[in-house]
């Protein structure tokens, strides 16, 4: 059952990510249909993230009360209905509103799903489980790119959106029959207990020191940089391949699929490597923090090479390896945040994912402005946007590796948790 639950969550994330990817795949026809400039397209591309972060925190925190299964089911149902509303889009303002509402429906999905995965998988296997879940988005690139591009070319982008809504309803029906959590004992929490953390009233004075700690701050910043790359790849990468590499729409679709293959292999292998390290030494900092931070630095360095070589093969290799390594942030950062305050798993996971999604709001717009200011030299505008992403990944990857150590927080918490458990 745990693998069936994980498969449905991965399929849900596939739909979530494919919904964002369509905007990139359909960039040219939408811009032509509504006569949009690069700046306007950047606004439309980032609209899905306007409410994403706010609703993400509220929804994921609410899942701690109502249950992750109910919250996940509601989101899948909600966005499936909205995706059918693509036929009502008639211009830029309606497109922006439509994307903003979709973002609100999808906002809490990833943190809530990560919290749900914590119920079904033991600590030493959560990295692989989270990797499989996150790879739902990569499969969306692998399988969805040529399929969606073909649908857009032959049937229009509205039909492509509606097809995702239909698939969402199928997932929703299957989700109804899944239990909230396992009906067997033995899955341990991060502290090695066989039961849930004792629930207690939320106290702001105890929470804000965690929020202002170096572990939290640099976790949020590296997540922000990673998300900037992810959103750039969804909104602008297809246009990069058609405008800079000069591929046809069909060629672009297959290039994105090739990137998806590399991404899945790289992210799965690096997650498995992190899991094996943790199983062997039980050192959270070495196996989770250092592996993640190093991956972000490597991603930034190889991305910067794109400004020196604008070839199709090299771009596929760099994006495949770079984005694949950066996916580790989506896998590990929620675990790091949950480790800082385990009894508020949904809230902590939502904080990092929602902060990451701020990059989704401003990233597409800044790229649009960079392209607009570059005038006819579109290649220069894209190069500047890539270098900006690379610099952020290297800088925050180094700071993350140097200053994040959740084990210090856990060692501080252990006496209090043991005392609180004995009282219960």
3D structure, described in words:
It is a single chain. This protein is mostly helical and 424 residues long. Helix 1 packs parallel to helix 8 and helix 11 packs antiparallel against helix 18. The radius of gyration is 21 Å and the shape is globular. The chain has 19 helices and no strands.
What is the CATH homologous superfamily assignment?
Answer: MFS general substrate transporter like domains
Helix content: over 70%
Q: What CATH architecture label applies?
A: Up-down Bundle
Tally of DSSP β-strands: 0
Shape field: globular
Q: How many domains, as an integer?
A: 1
Strand coverage percent: under 5%
Total of helices = 19
User: What's the CATH class label?
Assistant: Mainly Alpha
Protein name: MFS transporter
Main location: membrane
Membrane topology: Multi-pass membrane protein
Keywords: Membrane, Transmembrane, Transmembrane helix, Transport
């Amino acid at each position: 059952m745990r693998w069936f639950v994980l498969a449905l969550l991965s399929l849900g994330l596939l739909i979530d990510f494919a919904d964002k990817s369509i905007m990139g795949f359909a960039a040219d026809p939408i811009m032509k249909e509504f006569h949009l400039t690069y700046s306007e397209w950047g606004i439309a591309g980032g609209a899905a993230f306007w409410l994403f972060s706010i609703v993400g925190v509220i929804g994921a925190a609410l899942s701690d009360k109502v249950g992750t299964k109910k919250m996940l089911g509601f989101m899948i149902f909600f966005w499936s209905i909205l995706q059918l509303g693509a036929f009502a889009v008639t211009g830029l303002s309606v497109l922006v509103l439509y994307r903003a509402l979709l973002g609100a429906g999808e906002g809490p999905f990833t943190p809530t799903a990560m919290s749900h995965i914590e119920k079904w998988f033991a600590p030493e296997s959560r990295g692989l489980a989270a990797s499989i879940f996150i790879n739902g988005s990569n499969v969306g690139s692998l399988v969805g790119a040529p399929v969606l591009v073909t649908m857009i070319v032959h049937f229009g982008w509205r039909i492509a959106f509606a097809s995702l809504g239909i698939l969402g309803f199928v997932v929703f029906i299957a989700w109804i029959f899944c239990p909230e959590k396992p009906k067997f004992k033995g899955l341990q929490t991060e502290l090695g207990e066989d039961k849930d953390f004792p629930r207690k009233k939320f106290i702001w004075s105890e929470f804000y020191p965690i929020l202002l700690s170096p572990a939290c701050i640099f976790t949020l910043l590296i997540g922000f940089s990673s998300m900037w790359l992810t959103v750039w790849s969804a909104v602008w990468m297809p246009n990069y391949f058609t405008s800079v590499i000069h591929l046809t729409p069909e060629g672009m679709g297959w290039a994105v699929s090739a990137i998806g293959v590399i991404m899945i292999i790289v992210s799965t292998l690096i997650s498995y490597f992190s899991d094996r390290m943790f199983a062997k030494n039980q050192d959270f900092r070495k196996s989770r923090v250092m592996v993640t931070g190093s991956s972000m630095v490597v991603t930034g360095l190889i991305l910067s090479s794109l400004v020196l070589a604008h070839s199709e093969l090299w771009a596929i290799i760099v994006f495949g390896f770079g984005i694949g390594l950066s996916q580790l942030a989506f896998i590990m950062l929620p675990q790091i945040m949950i480790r800082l305050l385990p009894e508020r798993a949904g809230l902590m996971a939502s904080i990092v994912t929602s902060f990451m999604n701020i990059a989704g709001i401003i990233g597409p717009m800044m790229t649009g402005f960079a392209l607009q200011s570059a005038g006819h030299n579109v290649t220069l505008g894209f190069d500047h946007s890539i270098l900006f992403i690379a610099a952020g990944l290297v800088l925050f990857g180094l700071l993350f590796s140097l200053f994040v150590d959740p084990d210090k927080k856990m060692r501080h918490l252990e006496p209090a948790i043991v005392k609180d458990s004995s009282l219960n």
